[in-house]
Amino acid sequence: MASSILDYKKNRDLIYLSYKRKKYWWEAVNWFNVNSKIIKYKNFIQSDVRVVYFPNYAANPYQNIMYSSLNSDKKEKGTEIIDDLCFLSMAKKRIFHIHWLKEIFVGCDSEEKAKLCYEGFLDELKIYIGIGCKIIWTIHNKVDHDQPDFISKYLIELMKHLCDVTYKIHVHSLNSIGIMEEFLGVSFKDKAYYLEHPLYPVEYKYKKTVIPEMKGRKFENYLLSLGMIRPYKGVAQLLSAYESALRSNKNIKLVVAGRCLDPAVDDFSKTMVNKYPGNFVYINRSLSDEEVHYLYANCLVSVLTYQKILISGSYYMASTHKKPSICPNIGMFTEMVNEENGFLYDQSIPGLKEVINRIANLPKEQINEIGKRSYEKCSNSYEKFSEKYLELIRGS
């Protein structure tokens, strides 16, 4: 019998070499099947469920929260699919969980390269499906932001394909279903699984944090725009509205913080720093967790000025700190935000200015109450979120 196992292993390795040479997806599935027979024969202990996820956004705590209940039964997608096959062969139930799709096209500077990446990912999907994986796709964006048209085209085609082959399509707001069905021209409501975005775990150890750009300055009760600065986030419009509001409310303060990838905002912000040194702070860099929590803890309101958005993790970060947000009336905000727990505006600069002026005239105590209601409106603690996710995949 030992020799038959050695033959199995030899056959398994030859099959994978064939896959590597020819890139035929079914050879990888055959490799998995042979390996599974070896595991079953040797009576290895298998996990109830294992998850391979893609991509890994390590800088964002979201995935750590989602998978925290899985302990060692999860891994990020490997560059070598054999690593994933080995990992998944040790599970009774297997999940391939897809998040942000743009990472498939990293380095694609032409349509030809994008097409190859698109087709390569479709072949890998066939492997995961062929070994019995249930595919879960979390919709984070209507279409990934700030992509060239030739990539957006393949992103849309891939989303349509996922609507067909996935087991569950996870959404963070109920209105995402209708928005995406209309956008893609397909129906997937029978596969949709609603699980609201979680609040974040926060350790309150940041009260003595010193932000170098704010050192030695008495800066409190400020509006806060925090996060990587990219064109779709509308920070240039925020600066225009804020400067206009300053003419009638001289005491309004604003902090714009995050690595800037929008040259127009960078130029505008440097001008604002010189013009309004007592009112405006610009922090053009990545921030530590302690700095992020400090800025939220000491702000008055979070400002989210997206030009387009479906789901915003920044909204939930502000709500975690019991801070209200100024939000455009698009995407999840039309479902989550009302006059009781936040501030909606119509995406125009005059509309944003009007909200900023209104906040400047509200008592701080009233704004704090609105922030508490923003927190209370969110249904998922990070512990609940991970537990509910585990229920979803165990029931697959």
From TrEMBL:
Gene3D superfamilies: Glycogen Phosphorylase B
Domain of life: Bacteria
Coiled coil regions, renumbered to chain: none
Keywords, comma-separated and alphabetical: Transferase
Protein name as annotated: Peptidase M14
InterPro entries recorded: Glyco_trans_1 (IPR001296)
Pfam families in the record: Glycos_transf_1
Organism: Shewanella saliphila
High-level lineage: Bacteria, Pseudomonadati, Pseudomonadota, Gammaproteobacteria, Alteromonadales
Domain Glycosyl transferase family: residue ranges: 220-374
